[in-house]
Specification:
Layout lengths: L1 E2 L11 H12 L13 H7 L7 E5 L6 E5 L8 H11 L2 E6 L3 H13 L4 E6 L17 E10 L2 E5 L6 E4 H9 L8 E6 L6 H16 L9 H9 L9 H4 L6 H14 L8 H14 L4 H22 L5 H17 L6 H18 L7 H32 L1
Antiparallel strand pairs: 1-6, 2-3, 4-9, 5-6, 5-9, 6-7, 7-8
């Protein structure tokens, strides 16, 4: 049996930063300004902070329509995201990409060297996160392996404790998505001590530049575009067109809720975590004005949470889906102790999807009202995001 002895910090808000925070803590790597383990919020801000993105996936062979969001800086470039963060905190990442068998050897080698192994995974092939075969190969994220017990891996996966997963299942999840097949990352501290104030300021500047761009895919205008799509009856990507017969709507609305509020977002689209970072930045930079900006982002977190909840509030069926989704993620937050409850909630959700995903869960009139209401909320969110970003830019 191999276990990283110092691995005692588990879970977190956001897969990308939780994996780094917990791996650093296990190795005794601390922040230079206070000698304490890096908080996840500080790492999130230094890495570039917030992002925004909206992608609607359609599948010709099945009714499934999945909404995917990006709430972090450069959310569609996870390797560059990690590398940039590591450079700013004086840590050298070592990346291995290989075949499945070589990936197992690299995993064992890392653990035998005393290094936690950050691994990239396909969500549907992690048994306790699986919900629908239709999602096979669709949803990637990362966790951290901190031990091997025979043919079982010990995985830190955003729970209060670790999960046990068979090495075969872990290998399958690592091998599934071609863009990061069997990718494994280990972290080592370099001799160069980071200037934490410079790193914080660089992260703030990245966030302002990224969100403030003109892109309708990777900057705030994407929210305004999404708001338009909610009621656009002519654009093929408009929701009234996509969901004219209601097919796939239940899972799409579940995606809105889950990917804004429950999976790797700390609720509220990471805006609350960013507010925590701004509080830390105020102390590090001796700039109290960031505390006021933090208040704006806490308000945005609550606003995004209300929007997410409203996506599953238009009928008894949708409210039942939301209850089961919450039960699923609440159980997963416990770690291994919640696996059975999570898998039961997932099975119940899958049954609901199967029974109701070929027709609308609401009447045509109610569906139009729902789309209009979501569009109005998105327009309000866009205005609030612009206001908060303007305040952040002024604080810099």
């Amino acid at each position: 049996m191999i276990v990283i002895e110092g691995y005692r910090q588990f879970g977190g808000a956001h897969a990308e930063t939780a994996s780094v925070a917990n791996a650093l803590a296990a190795q005794g790597i601390v922040a230079p300004h206070n000698g304490k383990p890096y908080s996840e919020a500080l790492l999130f801000g230094i890495a570039g902070g917030l992002g925004v993105g909206y992608i609607l996936w359609e599948f010709k062979a099945r009714p499934l329509k999945v909404i995917v969001f990006g709430w972090q800086y450069r959310w569609n470039y996870p390797v560059e995201y990690h590398n940039g963060l590591c450079a700013r905190i004086g840590v050298a990442p070592s990346v291995v990409e290989s075949s499945a068998k070589a990936g197992q050897r690299a995993l064992r080698s890392a653990l035998e060297s005393g290094l936690p192994a950050i691994v990239y995974l396909d969500r549907e092939n992690v048994p306790y996160r699986s919900i629908s075969p239709d999602l096979d190969g669709c949803m990637g994220y990362m966790g951290t392996v901190y031990g091997l017990d025979g043919e079982t891996a010990l995985l830190d996966d955003m729970g209060a404790d670790g999960f046990r997963i068979s090495l075969a299942d872990l290998t399958r999840a690592r091998d599934r998505i071609p863009t990061y097949k069997n990718r494994l990352v280990t972290l080592r501290q370099t001799d160069a001590a980071p200037n934490i104030a410079e790193s914080v300021r660089a992260g703030l500047e990245d966030c302002v530049g990224y969100l403030g761009g003109s892109s309708e895919s990777f900057a705030l205008p994407v929210i305004k575009k999404w708001a338009r799509m909610m009621t656009d009856t002519k654009n093929p990507k408009g929701w009234p067109v996509l969901f004219a017969n209601g097919e796939g709507l239940v899972q799409a609305l579940t995606s809105v809720y889950g990917h804004t509020e429950r999976f790797s977002t700390a609720r509220g689209a990471m805006r609350g975590v960013y507010a925590d970072f701004l509080e830390e930045a105020a102390d590090i930079l001796h700039a109290p004005q960031f505390r006021e900006v933090a208040g704006l982002y806490r308000g945005l977190a609550a606003q995004w949470s209300r929007f997410a909840a409203s996506a599953l509030d238009a009928s008894d069926l949708l409210r039942e889906v939301r209850t089961l989704t919450d039960a699923r993620y609440d159980a997963l937050a416990l770690g291994e102790a919640g696996v059975d409850a999570s898998m039961q909630a997932s099975a119940d959700l899958a049954a609901l999807f199967s029974a109701h995903d070929t027709a609308s869960p609401v009447t045509p009139a109610r569906q139009s009202e729902l789309f209009a209401h979501m569009g109005e909320q998105l327009s309000a969110l866009y205005a609030a995001e612009v206001q908060a970003l303007s305040a952040l830019k002024a604080a810099l």
